[in-house]
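Researcher: Next entry in the queue.
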Amino acid sequence: MLVLDGQSLAREIRTRVKAEARELRARTGVTPRLAAILVGDDPASQIYVAGKERDCARAGLESVVVRMPADTPWATLRGKIEELGADPRVHGILVQQPLPPQIRAADAVAATDPRKDVDGLHALSAGHLLRGESDEAFVPCTPLGILEILRHYGIPLRGRRAVVVGRSMLVGKPLALLLLQADATVTVCHSRTPDLAEVTRRADVLCLAAGRPGLLRADMVAPGATVVDVAMNRSEGGLVGDAAPDVADVAGALTPVPGGVGPMTRAMLLANTLLAARRLAGLAGAPPAAAPTGGAGARA
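Model: Structure for this entry, 300 residues:
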């Protein structure tokens, strides 16, 4: 079985981002800068944001973290988002989720300057992605990382049957669109899908993003299929994905958990931040790693 190692690939992408950031700085004087807003003191969010700071430092990018108390009203957060949007020294903005109950995540995303929406969640980016115009959008980092893993390891998509389990705006829906652009035939499953196993057994490429440990068993996988496990569920033994351990006995290729999709998500955030800096500096060009696309516009 082929192990789809995201850890080593993420290191390669960080190296490429660092080289291109150095070149951008020499050419324009611009150093890509990522601003993260952390509202409250959620322990997991603290860890995630600290990891993003380390990733930026390794890749030669600047980062700033804006910490706000958990009782921050929406108007105050909106003002900070707009302030960062107007700051020419900031190229990427992300508002760390989850947010306190008085703030809707959708409002925070809508308030973000779409030119700096490196999470790829703004309606403008989602619309471009839906139309097949990925070159005009920021693609959410996890789906972008998944497509880069598949490309790097030579997993064919054109004409293949791809199944995505999960329909979130962060992973499932954008991933399905990227797979369609790569000419796969795509089925999206979710909690209301009857007889999930009957669908998953037909997949050549099977992507799991449901957040349910052990959801996928070996008898639900076609021999030799590629399984991409996006989920990171906490258990007594540590982090586990949605795939049960016996899936490794039948899959032809499998992303490990941890060490598969997670490192790639962080690497693609760096790539998106670099892309935002290049665009804001008036330069065209794709990020150091780009998911395959089917070109602009819808195709039959």
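Model: Residues 290-299 have pLDDT under 50 and may be disordered.
Researcher: Noted, moving on.
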